[in-house]
Amino acid sequence: MHGLNDLGYYDTQTPLMAATKSHQDPAVLTTLVELRADPNGRASRTQLSSLYMCRSPGHVRALLEQKAELEHSALHGAAALAGPDTLRELLKRQCDPNYILAGRQERFGPLHAVALFSLSNRHAVEAARLLLEHRADVNSRSAPSDDFLWECRKARMRVAVLGFANCNMMTRLRASMSGISPLGYAALVGHGQLAQLFLDYGADPTPNDHGDTPEDLARRSHHYHLIPMLATFAT
């Protein structure tokens, strides 16, 4: 598909991917594959498959029945934008909750995906709890690489010149990304329930590679309601 970016379908995604992202009935996915859609096709921009974009347990079952390859990375997509039922279906099929998705330029775990997209996913807390119950590492750290690492460094310089509060969310995100933990992401986006859940499961206030603690990220993003739970020293 091409030219549908304004509708949320970036170029090189396929109709099968659109069917998953738009919450179509699983029978639509089955029919598309019967009409020769490739269940293992990938969007060239991201190298992600249709299984990554599943929004329901029925999507997962339909694609696997049509010979889609089961990939641990599907957990990341479900963690970001689907509900706990979809995650549960993937976990039942032995997807690893500690699998590090090595994309083209970044390495991160499912809990990072939950936290990063938590404000747009009303199931984020339930999804994170389910992953944690399956022993996802609450203190895993992301690792940008290659060209994207340079983008993160440029964002860091921009923040240093303009100030954190004067940069847009994408710049702040990239400037903070290297070495960030799931708790750091929750602090950065301002999700209090998720931050508390991570702390309840033993999250450490570990700084990112630039020395920014979750408390620092919350304060710089003006999420002052998170400061009491994130404070690392008594005041």
From TrEMBL:
It comes from Symbiodinium necroappetens. SMART domains: ANK (SM00248). GO terms for cellular component: cytoplasm; nucleus. SUPFAM superfamilies: Ankyrin repeat. The keyword Repeat applies. This is Uncharacterized protein. PROSITE patterns: ANK_REP_REGION (PS50297), ANK_REPEAT (PS50088). Keywords: ANK repeat, Repeat. ANK repeats lie at residues 178-210. InterPro entries: Ankyrin_rpt, Ankyrin_rpt-contain_sf, Multifunctional_regulatory.
